[in-house]
Amino acid sequence: MVLALVLSVVLLNVGCAKTAPVRLPVVFSDHMVVQRGMDVPVWGWSEPGAHVTVQMGSAKAVTTATDEGAFLVCLPPQEAGGPHTITVTSENTIWVKDVLVGDVWICSGQSNMAMAVNRVRDAEKEIARANFPDIRLFTVKRTPATKPKDDVEGSWVACSPETVPGFSAVGYFFGRALDEHLKVPIGLVNTSWGGTPSEAWTSPGTIAKTDAFDPIVKRWQEQVVTYAERK
């Protein structure tokens, strides 16, 4: 009896160890904004072949994870508003709460976009009045990579005097103007990085197809080869 019980526990643990829980990229997290008036894509990873159900309000979609464990569904277009909860269920369940539907903008550029609110004229005054709960901010952590990444580091926060000081000033004032005129939730994703040329944001495959970039590719390859020695 004891042996049978031990074997049952071992087999149960082995079975659980093989099951990959469903997970989402961090951009799908509490306080996020999804784009109004168009399909809402939701993607992530799960056990290969696992059934995945995604629901937001009455909208629901079901799919099966690929052999690589990736999944993608599209919920039908939503009207501006909220808050909503996005529920993703497979072997486990994830709840993404306080989701708003509105307009989502990418704030990209160099130092002019990266300059923070706490550096503008009358910064103290502007920060004190930055209480806009329907404006949501997401700053992508700056992490160099040699290949495109399928996830980033960051988190969504509601715009407030506590969260806005380090956010892109151009992005914030742009979002505030939109909020005042459109009266819909605004999501701002700050991907700015001062001093980075467009080539740094271009895929290696695209650069390799352009002869003008050959010297850059050659120099990069040389830098990679000698990196360990220079580190």
TrEMBL record:
Gene3D superfamilies: SGNH hydrolase (3.40.50.1110). GO terms for molecular function: sialate O-acetylesterase activity. Keywords: Hydrolase. Residues 102-224 form the Sialate O-acetylesterase domain. GO terms for biological process: carbohydrate metabolic process. This is Sialate O-acetylesterase domain-containing protein.
